[in-house]
Amino acid sequence: MNLAIGIDTGGTCTDAVLYDFDTRRVLGSSKALTTYDDLTRGILQALDGLDPTLCRQARLAGLSTTLATNACVEGKFRRTRLLLLGIDRRGMEKYGASYGFTDPDDIRYLSCRTTITGGIEEEPDWDLLRASAKDWFAGVEACAVCEIYGMRNGAVLEQKAARIVREQTGLPTVCASLLFGGLSSLERAASAVLNAGLLPVTRDFLDAVQRAFRARGIDAAIHIVRSDSSLMGLNYSAEHAVETLLSGPAASALGGSALTGEPDAVIVDIGGTTTDVALVQDGAPLLSDDGIRVGQWKTLIRGLFSTSFALGGDSAIRWDVHGNRSLGPERIIPLCVLATRYPAVTETLRRQVLETPTHTLMLHEFLTLARADWADLPLSLEAHEQKLCLALEAGPLSVQQAADVLGIDKYQLRTRTLEQAGIVLRAGLTPTDIMHVRGDYTRYDRNASIWAARFAAGSLHVELEALCDDIYTEVSHRVFDAVSQMLLEHASPYYRTHGLDDGMRELLRLQWENRASGGSGLLQYAFRTPAKIIGIGGPVHLFLPAAAKALGAECIIPEGASTANAAGAVTGQTTCTATAEIRPHGLSPEDEQQGDYEVLCEGQPPCYFATESEAVAWASARLAEHAAARVREQGAAGELSIVTHTEDVTGGGCKLCTRIRVTASTCLGRTMKEVC
């Protein structure tokens, strides 16, 4: 057998599969809760659900994760400061916010003069940088350096600046132009800042996987899914953390396609924290035309054409003082899960609900300690926060119990600081609990879910069954909206740029409301897709069929859907794409030695040729060399496939440039046969 292990570590669960490349079948799968305090523990629990003998025969492993995405969106990454060369504060005030730089004062600026072709007319004041570095980068854990034309001159100024910063501060420092292609300096800068900040998150994950493999005697070469659904090796990924930002959704697309064999599909992954939607066309995940945006950051990272929104099995079900119910976006621990770990929770919850059947406060929610080392963290906790943490060391406390411990009224309980720092987690009513109430999923303590749902229904003045129906319908409706928007954005650049207006949203609402009849007697609402809608994730079979029916599409829930991400992690390719543009170049007295065509090629300074055919031939050869070298750096082994694509870029009725794209690739399965 030609075996590999796939592992997906998500916000809620860690999944593992054994995959046979010869038969293209999943031989075994397992699921465990993600253990944030020690990722190794959750990975080991997932691995222990697989055949240990077969696991030791695997020689390759594919990984995917949403840890970097979650850290980015939640702002929980290493504090990094940017050093800009050749861009002043006024430029960042004007343009920076569009790329994620909302505070120009938190950036450090070093003057220099370089030309658009990369020529260096005036170097930075290196003595000033040496004298100021410790002060400039005080209070941060990493540094990123970006020079406006660094892509045109081999990043020589960036590299010298980085060396000085490292020497003076000892901080890990990232050079934007050495990690990322593309001429947009602010996108390079944003990508470098994120990469520096996310390195510890990715390295912790990779270290946890390696520790788990050693503990179980597994000797497998490790690859991880990138944002564009390709793969990269262990060493490369340890330095390119930002390229895992869409790792989880990319693995979903790969897994859904691999398990069904459908060439054209919408992949919907309903997880514990988020729901991810991606498109597959002609058997390959569709990629975004531009660099991906995650949270506030606009990057150069080539990624999946996808959307992720905060809706999943762990989304908080809450209400306000006016009785208006909400679902998410906050993620909390399902009460059924907490009660399984701490059985006393169910009895506490029962007494709470019997004593106070309804309330405007979330009295059914509990607090639990997430960090046993909270006292050693570099945080200035107030006295009442320290007192609460000490009390939580004995076990979870309800909202009322926590207020009693602190000697305050329950309305005065404030735990946001502890929760944002990840020291304390909150548990409450979620869709996972509603599934337990209805008996559709009963892995954990169903009684805790029932008591919490009774409290919610009473507080909202609805019947328990009506509350359950409403939650199921809302999840399906929001999935329908997300899939519809993705398809509209794919069909029209207008919607990618402007989003859906109120009129289009009203049409979608009418289509959903009339999904059974198709419309009124005089008008039919008929947004339809011929693509199959493929469901991934544990609860997807409960919610996706209704959304697919409203779009007139076939819904497919493949066998192994609950662990499809882990399967997707081993079914991708190791690829690298390099690009170049060839533009007409007008001669001037200053460049008499230059030709009529300028080549802007990744990894090279601008070059000039007398004819376009010479320029195309030179650029294609250089790109092939560059792509092959990069894909080897990413961990590819064995024979490579090199594909060259050339297109004319036009505008205003005339040709603007010729764009060349060269892709070097191999697949994990083929690599594995060569390794074996």
Keywords:
globular; alpha/beta; disordered C terminus; six-stranded mixed sheet; 39% helix; single chain; 24 helices; 676 residues
- State the helical fraction: 25-40%
User: Strands of the biggest beta sheet: in what spatial order?
Assistant: 3-2-1-4-11-12
Report the radius of gyration as a whole number of Å.
27 Å
Shape: globular
Beta-strand level of the residues, as a percent range? 15-25%
Structural class: alpha/beta
What do the pLDDT scores average to? 87
Description of the molecule:
The chain is α/β, with parallel strands linked by helices and 676 residues long. The protein has 24 helices and 31 strands. Strand 7 (113-114) and strand 8 form a beta hairpin. Helix 18 packs across helix 20 (502-513). It starts with a strand and ends with a helix. Residues 670-676 have low confidence and may be disordered.
SSE order and pairing:
Elements: E1 3-9, E2 13-20, E3 25-33, H1 39-47, H2 52-57, E4 60-65, H3 67-74, E5 80-85, H4 89-95, E6 108-110, E7 113-114, E8 120-122, H5 126-136, E9 142-147, H6 156-169, E10 173-175, H7 176-179, H8 185-215, E11 221-225, E12 231-233, H9 234-239, H10 247-260, E13 265-270, E14 275-281, E15 284-285, E16 293-294, E17 297-298, E18 306-309, E19 315-319, E20 325-331, E21 333-334, H11 335-341, H12 344-355, E22 366-369, H13 383-392, E23 397-398, H14 399-406, H15 416-420, E24 424-428, H16 431-438, H17 446-460, H18 464-491, H19 493-498, H20 502-513, E25 532-536, H21 540-550, E26 555-556, H22 564-568, E27 573-584, E28 597-601, E29 607-609, H23 612-633, E30 641-651, E31 654-667, H24 668-675
Parallel strand pairs: 1-4, 4-11, 5-6, 5-9, 9-10, 13-25, 21-24, 25-26
Antiparallel strand pairs: 1-2, 2-3, 7-8, 11-12, 13-14, 14-15, 14-18, 16-17, 19-20, 22-23, 22-24, 27-28, 27-31, 28-29, 30-31
Helix pairs in contact: 1-8, 3-8, 5-6, 12-17, 16-17, 16-18, 17-18, 18-20, 18-21
